[in-house]
Amino acid sequence: MECMSGSSLRLPLISSVISEATNPVTSPAFLSNPPRRLRRKTINMGLLSILRKLKSAPDQEVRILLLGLDNGGKTTLLKQLASEDISHITPTQGFNIKSVQSQGFKLNVWDIGGQRKIRPYWRNYFENTDVLIYVIDSADRKRFEETGQELAELLDEEKLSGVPVLIFANKQDLLTAAPASEIAEGLNLHTIRDRMWQIQSCSALTGEGVQDGMNWVCKNVTAKKK
After folding, report:
1. 66 annotated to bind ligand
2. Contact 57, 100 (CB under 8 A)
3. Which residues bind Mg(2+) (predicted)?
C-alpha cells in the first residue's frame, strides 16, 4: 500500500500487606514472606484497581475535519470507518458527524459536503480541528487542478495552521486511478513545511488503505497533544 509522509502497564508497589490481614502480625518474617493466600489477594486487588481506572478513564476526544471535492468518496469513507453499510450513498448536502473509537481515541469526524456552493461554508467548521483529512478522487484527473487549489487554500487558513493533514488518494480500486506518488508530485506536497502530512492511497469502497491512514492520524494526534 503506497503512502508518503512529511516529516505495559506496571503494577503499583505494595508497601505493606498488614492492612489486609484479620489479625495483623508485626514479625519481620511475616513482612518479608506473607502467606501465599494473602499475597495473591493483595495482588489481585491491585490489578482490579488498575483495571477500574482504565475502564473509567474516558477516551481522548479528537476532532477530525473531512473535506474534499464532491464525489470524492468522503461519505463512503466515513461509513467505512464506522463499519456501516456503503451500498447506498447519497451526496452530502450539509454535513455528517460520526464518532469512531480507535486506539484509545474517540474520533469525532465531521464530513462536510464538497459541492462548489457549499465550500465557502467550510471555514465555519475550522475551529478546534485536530486533524484535517482531505479526500481526492484519484481517477478524476480532470479535477486535479481544482482539488489542488482547494487544498492549498485550506493549508493557508489561519485556524488550520499547523494542523496535521492526511490526504486520502481514494478510488485506487479503479484502473484509471493515479498513484499516490503522482498526485503528491502534482500537488507539490513536498513543499509543505509547516505541519505533518501524509498521502495515503486507499479505496473507501473496499476499505484497503483506510486503516493505514487512520493509524497515522492516531499516531500524530498523540504527538500533537503531548
Report:
1. no
2. no
3. 75, 92
